[in-house]
Write a structure and sequence with these properties.
By secondary structure, the protein is an alpha+beta fold. It is built from three helices and eight strands. An eight-stranded antiparallel β-barrel has the order 1-2-3-4-5-6-7-8.
Length: about 190
């Protein structure tokens, strides 16, 4: 399934890039910068652990985090209603997420009213707060030489909608990282 998603996103990007590059020569990009908030569910499932003797019964996993941050996007027309673009994001988190950041390509269409509906694919890194996630003190991990990676990343796929209101853009996105997490964000941006 993951190979099919990568292949589909790669093919769509390969088809859109030459046209986007050509459109870039004749049309200026549509640039949006803004702020966003959301909820990121990391999808941690203790049922995945093989522990029939109850050794993980007291491990308290809090795997949902509110995220607050910013985004920047640049879209290039590819024909009358189709567009291709790129965007970046950075968020601070609460609870189990210290921060997250990533880049994504976007491919979608613009309605007559200027709204944009798009799919996106890219890469997202997540910096975890292990103490908040597991309840185990980071000092304990350090004292016992337990080396646990707290930054990880994987591919991101999702869909989004942007609605213009004058120079302001209202947006909503739903994403997943490697089909293991679920992340929803809403935001307000300004067009330049």
């Amino acid at each position: 399934m993951r190979k099919l998603v990568f292949t589909s996103l790669g093919a769509a990007g390969a088809l859109a890039l030459p046209a986007a590059a050509q459109a870039q020569d004749t049309t200026k990009p549509d640039i949006t910068i803004g702020a966003s908030v959301g909820l990121h569910d990391l999808g941690v499932d203790l049922g995945d652990l093989d522990a029939d003797d109850g050794e993980f019964d007291e491990l308290d996993i809090d795997d949902s985090a509110e995220i607050f941050g910013a985004f920047a996007a640049a879209d290039f027309p590819v024909g009358e209603s189709l567009f291709a673009g790129v965007e970046g994001n950075f968020h601070f988190g609460s609870g189990p997420i210290e921060s997250e950041y990533g880049v994504a390509g976007r491919l979608g269409f613009r309605t007559e009213g200027g709204s944009k509906i798009y799919a996106r694919g890219g890469y997202q890194w997540v910096d975890l707060d292990l103490e908040n996630l597991t309840g185990v003190s980071e000092d304990f991990l350090d004292e016992n030489d337990i080396d646990v990676a707290d930054v990880g990343g994987d591919y991101l796929v999702g869909v989004g909608l942007e609605v213009p209101v004058s120079r302001v853009v209202l947006r909503a996105n739903v994403d997943t990282i490697a089909f293991d997490t679920l992340r929803g964000t809403v935001g307000v941006g300004f067009k330049f």
